[in-house]
Amino acid sequence: QVQLVESGGGLVQAGGSLRLSCAASGRTFGSYAMGWFRQAPGKDREFVARIWWSGGSTNYADSVKGRFTISRDNTKNTVYLQMNSLKPEDTAVYYCNARDVYARDYWGQGTQVTVSS
Protein backbone atom coordinates (compact mmCIF):
# COMPACT_ATOMS: atom_id res chain seq x y z
CA GLN A 1 0.00 0.00 0.00
CA VAL A 2 0.89 3.64 -0.31
CA GLN A 3 -0.14 6.50 1.96
CA LEU A 4 -1.05 9.78 0.28
CA VAL A 5 -1.28 13.26 1.80
CA GLU A 6 -2.46 16.26 -0.22
CA SER A 7 -1.61 19.89 0.49
CA GLY A 8 -1.75 23.28 -1.18
CA GLY A 9 -5.48 23.86 -1.34
CA GLY A 10 -7.08 27.12 -0.37
CA LEU A 11 -9.12 30.11 -1.49
CA VAL A 12 -8.20 31.86 -4.72
CA GLN A 13 -9.87 34.39 -7.01
CA ALA A 14 -11.04 33.45 -10.48
CA GLY A 15 -8.16 33.66 -12.92
CA GLY A 16 -5.62 32.88 -10.23
CA SER A 17 -3.28 29.95 -9.80
CA LEU A 18 -2.67 27.27 -7.22
CA ARG A 19 -0.33 24.30 -6.96
CA LEU A 20 -1.38 21.13 -5.18
CA SER A 21 1.11 18.61 -3.84
CA CYS A 22 0.66 14.96 -2.96
CA ALA A 23 3.29 13.31 -0.79
CA ALA A 24 3.47 9.52 -0.93
CA SER A 25 5.01 7.21 1.63
CA GLY A 26 7.23 4.24 0.95
CA ARG A 27 9.92 3.50 -1.59
CA THR A 28 7.73 2.21 -4.43
CA PHE A 29 6.35 5.54 -5.65
CA GLY A 30 7.63 4.92 -9.16
CA SER A 31 5.49 1.77 -9.44
CA TYR A 32 2.24 3.74 -9.39
CA ALA A 33 0.37 5.72 -11.96
CA MET A 34 -0.64 8.89 -10.15
CA GLY A 35 -3.65 11.08 -10.66
CA TRP A 36 -5.89 13.81 -9.37
CA PHE A 37 -9.65 13.64 -8.97
CA ARG A 38 -12.09 16.17 -7.58
CA GLN A 39 -15.52 16.15 -6.01
CA ALA A 40 -17.90 19.06 -5.57
CA PRO A 41 -20.78 18.93 -3.06
CA GLY A 42 -23.61 16.77 -4.36
CA LYS A 43 -21.57 15.61 -7.35
CA ASP A 44 -19.72 12.41 -8.20
CA ARG A 45 -15.97 12.28 -7.98
CA GLU A 46 -14.54 13.11 -11.39
CA PHE A 47 -11.24 12.52 -13.10
CA VAL A 48 -8.94 15.52 -13.49
CA ALA A 49 -5.47 14.35 -14.56
CA ARG A 50 -3.26 11.26 -14.77
CA ILE A 51 0.49 10.80 -15.10
CA TRP A 52 2.13 7.48 -15.93
CA TRP A 53 5.28 5.72 -14.77
CA SER A 54 7.91 7.70 -16.63
CA GLY A 55 6.17 11.03 -16.26
CA GLY A 56 6.15 11.46 -20.02
CA SER A 57 2.54 10.41 -20.61
CA THR A 58 -0.32 12.43 -19.20
CA ASN A 59 -4.09 12.60 -19.56
CA TYR A 60 -6.44 15.45 -18.70
CA ALA A 61 -10.14 15.98 -18.45
CA ASP A 62 -11.41 18.24 -21.21
CA SER A 63 -12.57 20.76 -18.63
CA VAL A 64 -9.02 21.41 -17.39
CA LYS A 65 -6.94 20.80 -20.52
CA GLY A 66 -4.67 23.74 -21.24
CA ARG A 67 -5.06 25.12 -17.72
CA PHE A 68 -3.82 22.35 -15.42
CA THR A 69 -0.50 20.50 -15.52
CA ILE A 70 0.30 17.30 -13.66
CA SER A 71 3.88 16.33 -12.89
CA ARG A 72 5.76 13.97 -10.61
CA ASP A 73 9.13 13.80 -8.92
CA ASN A 74 9.90 10.19 -8.09
CA THR A 75 13.01 11.12 -6.12
CA LYS A 76 10.79 13.12 -3.75
CA ASN A 77 7.80 10.76 -3.86
CA THR A 78 5.61 13.70 -4.81
CA VAL A 79 3.06 14.46 -7.50
CA TYR A 80 1.91 17.99 -8.32
CA LEU A 81 -1.05 19.65 -9.95
CA GLN A 82 -0.38 23.15 -11.23
CA MET A 83 -3.71 24.91 -11.72
CA ASN A 84 -3.84 28.13 -13.74
CA SER A 85 -6.72 30.31 -14.93
CA LEU A 86 -8.93 28.92 -12.20
CA LYS A 87 -12.69 29.16 -12.57
CA PRO A 88 -15.46 28.99 -9.96
CA GLU A 89 -16.49 25.62 -11.40
CA ASP A 90 -13.09 24.27 -10.34
CA THR A 91 -14.23 24.55 -6.72
CA ALA A 92 -14.08 21.07 -5.18
CA VAL A 93 -12.20 18.79 -2.85
CA TYR A 94 -9.19 17.52 -4.77
CA TYR A 95 -7.99 13.99 -4.11
CA CYS A 96 -4.67 12.41 -4.93
CA ASN A 97 -4.89 8.93 -6.42
CA ALA A 98 -2.39 6.12 -6.85
CA ARG A 99 -3.07 3.10 -9.04
CA ASP A 100 -0.85 0.04 -8.76
CA VAL A 101 -0.08 -2.63 -11.35
CA TYR A 102 -3.15 -4.61 -10.24
CA ALA A 103 -5.40 -1.60 -10.91
CA ARG A 104 -6.05 -1.08 -7.21
CA ASP A 105 -6.71 2.51 -6.20
CA TYR A 106 -5.42 4.35 -3.16
CA TRP A 107 -6.66 7.77 -2.07
CA GLY A 108 -5.52 10.71 -0.03
CA GLN A 109 -7.77 12.58 2.38
CA GLY A 110 -8.36 15.47 0.00
CA THR A 111 -7.65 19.19 0.00
CA GLN A 112 -10.25 21.92 -0.50
CA VAL A 113 -9.93 24.31 -3.44
CA THR A 114 -12.34 27.23 -3.51
CA VAL A 115 -12.39 29.68 -6.42
CA SER A 116 -14.32 32.91 -5.87
CA SER A 117 -16.02 34.75 -8.71
| Main sheet characteristics | 7 strands, mixed
**Proportion of beta-strand residues:** over 45%
* Tally of DSSP β-strands: 11
Content-based structural category: mainly beta
Helix run count: 0
The sequence of SSEs as H and E is EEEEEEEEEEE
Alpha-carbon distance between the termini?
39 Å
Average pLDDT for all residues: 92
Q: Report the principal-axis shape.
A: globular
Indicate the radius of gyration in whole angstroms: 13 Å
Low-confidence stretches: none
Helix percentage = under 10%
What would your notes on this structure say?
It is built from no helices and eleven strands. It is mainly beta and 117 residues long. Strands 2, 4, 5, 6, 9, 10 and 11 form a seven-stranded mixed beta sheet that branches. The protein has a four-stranded antiparallel beta sheet with strand order 1-3-8-7, with no helix packed on it. Strand 9 (92-99) and strand 10 (105-107) form a beta hairpin. 29% of the residues are buried. The mean pLDDT is 92.
